[in-house]
Amino acid sequence: MGRGAVMAKTVYSVIPKKMYGVIPKAAYGVDLLAYAELTVYITAYYVSSWTQAIQDACAALKTLGGGTILFPAGDYLIKPSLINISGSSITLKGLGTARLYTTETALWNCCIMVTGNDVVFDTLTFDHRGDSALLPTVKPYKGAISIWYNGSDYSSTANCIFYSYGIVTVLCDNYGSTAPLQYDHYNNYIYWQRKVDTWYDVSCVHLETRVLHYYNNVTTCVETAFTTWMARTGAELHFAKGYATGNTFTASQVGILYIPWAAYSNDYDPTYGADVLLNLNVMVKVIRGFEIWVSTGSNGRDIKNVTIEYNTIGLYLSANAYAKPANAVYFYHVGSYTAEVYDVEIHHNVTTETRDTAVYPTYTSVKNAFYWLVTGADTGAYCLNLANTMRRISIHDETVIGYHYSMLNLYRRSNVGGTLVHYDISFINNAATNCSFAIPYQDLFKAFFNLGASDLVTVTGNAISNPGIALQDQEEQLAYLTNLTYTGNTFT
Q1: Which of 26, 69, 182, 295 lies at a CB distance of 3.0 to 4.6 Å from 211, suitable for a disulfide?
Q2: Domains present along the chain, CATH in parentheses
């Protein structure tokens, strides 16, 4: 069936509930060889449960070679962990407000699993809040999921709404095998909320694919009185080619966590070129804007050819142990393998740090809030303090406002034997206004620029203005820094 063919759709109100045999050339008015698209209403399949109805409709369309299942406006109660869409070229589409919901939110369940290819969810609401007190506190990615694309190629989720209690709404992966070839996720709304005040590492979406198109999505963590109310990330994205653009994230610890490949040894393809764009995203009340992980999986999984541009990053300090602003862009050595970061351009992003002034009315109170939380090694609006080689990294035309740490942390964590590991790093024409340092007496934390363990470094044309705030030092040159060009940086 040609997904791209433009044909008039024929709508059938009733077709057999079981259709597993051989289908003739012309079945129920549909000429299967003429690329017509079969469209059915889910209501034609209702027998004893909507779970069975969806199973039966998907099984019938699998036999027919694909088609569309329409969900009229209304509520559809389904039982998790039973529906597996194994057919391909199948679309599930809502008409009006069609809500698929479950009253169970337990370990090891998912509303719908997809193992077929080219499966589309469009204009549906998934309500996975449930009534059960049993919620995932371990292994959340397999714990409770609204849609699980398990080894599904060229599938997509569009125009959907998700309500969840402390789970990952959409998981796209292929655990133990090669990553899906492509996945598209766009125009979706996610409302994520914890039901219990227990911390476990979970992202609002977790997507692993070779090519990703992730755009125009809105993700909100619902604020509560819980200490742990934030999700770990608004989106955890593993992809080698594609983009994340035009998305809005509110109140997650990290806006976007980016990793090029998953951690599985048979998931990495060294011949697959990388080309990643992260742009035009808006982040509100986050701790980190972008967190980039290096050294997951086997050797050779380098971060390369990544552009981070024209994003708005809103860091926010509130009276919460998990809400201390840290970085605009943060590189993190997460595994034990050798990998490099190269050909990364970061430009024209705007980062603003604000705070709850009712809780933190003065800069002294801000300093006290940060004292025991973040050590110097993790500070810096742009933190390149990484135990991996970084080369050809360009940061330019950035704007940072009200940030309480150093601007650039360029040093190699645990540098060994004077080896120069960072090479060709440029920090040019950036502006910082009203920025200072909450803990100026900690290591790697007392200067606006912390530089070291690098070769061929350019820091030029940066304008720093911090009226009313005492600036500690302009720069600190640490060990193993060579070929530094430091000119035209103004401090007022």
Answers
A1: 182
A2: 11-491 (2.160.20.10)
